[in-house]
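note to self: dont lose this again. the chain is below, predicted strucutre after it. 483 aa total, dont forget to put it in the shared folder this time
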Amino acid sequence: MKVPQDFECRARKWLGEERYGCLEAAFQEEPSVSVRLNPAKVKGLDLPAGGEVPWAAAEGRYLKDRPMFTADPWFHAGAYYVQEASSMSLGMAVRRYVDSPVVALDLCAAPGGKSTHLRALLPEGSLLVSNEPVRARAQVLAENMTKWGHPDVVVTQSYPADFSRLTGFFDVVVADVPCSGEGMFRKEADAVAGWSMDCVAMCRDRQRDILRAVWPALRPGGLLMYSTCTFNPYENEENVDWIARELGAELLPLAVDEAWHVCGDLRGDAGCAGPLLPVCHFLPGLVRGEGFFLSVLRKTSTNAGDCGAESAVGMPARLRKREKGKSGEGGGADSAFRSWLRHPLAFDFRDCGPRVVAFRAAWSRRLDLLCRAAKVIHAGIPLAERKGKDWMPLHALALSAEVAPSAFPVAEVDYDTAVAYLRKEALVLPPAVPKGYALVAYGGLPLGFVKNVGGRANNLYPAEWKIRTGHLVPYSLRDSSFL
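---
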């Protein structure tokens, strides 16, 4: 791979000759392949050990090669997320600085790698808002968060400035901002072709605009976790310094094992005379992963007129609460819905058009406020949809960690049947499976619902999610060898 000459000249200065030599050699190698396990779904299941990602040893695993993940039913069940290893370092910051329930915002969340990681690491009792302003990407984000299965998630499709109305609303903001992408050069040819110093300058300015816009939504004393997938100090160290100086924040250290070969402030190699910052650089050739930059800051400035969660009021009717004992369209369905959940008394039910959504009662007021300020496209657990006189359970319930084990009969299927289900083909279930709604499971994990009508089962897998690839190479993480 050939990098732009201007990048090479500047990177030699940023990194020093020895580090650049390692990076240059890494550019000619194949990227590593890594996955991050879902502790809510894989914990306790029999998976081989080995190949741990050093800074995410509990959940990150390297694979020997890149399989066809589409062919793995566990991938569709949300047992794991395919994520670049260096970006799993976000877990270091969360584990060190978040030890009690919080309201967190993943500002630039699509396709969902950091959001699924955050949701797995945040203390129980936390609420996560995952945001993506681009509609198509926001839909992918909602799909991935649904597969992950945690009920305390809201997905929004909004711009950073939209959250400024929610003054002091968030305890933690994760901003993995759009950048010049130098750290992805060996994975994305477009990143190489589109690189220029003009692009770097444009990204730096846009990053500052994003941070300035969202800053009021972070409470004083709250945490900003700022990251990029690029190397240069303009988008990294200089922006972190700008955040601290102009917006009002202090940098916090991260505990990094020397054996990981993670670098600190690169300006030291370039002869920077000022104080070096406690930041982390993951460089291909030194670590087994792509380029990534991570920093953590605590907000020291105050918000004028800060009134926290009371800064916005109101709620659109599309997410209004259902009244207990309501008659008419809902009838007595609420009691049936409650039997579908592990902890039914912890949730409110909300009308969302023809659907009913379960949302954690403790966060109900927060959802009302979010609906006023941002465009909410997913919240909590979409439970059921009205079909004539019947209520059909929705796919999100099947994948949720909150689905009650005894709520539906379970049909455990073999690999070929699981793939047929994911292709949205009709199935024939064993005679022991009763008529009505049932869960199809593979390897102990639910894949989704069917309606068993006797001789066959109507497949309720979402049409927009079905496998369309004509040829699949069979694969399952259950049988993988980790490095």
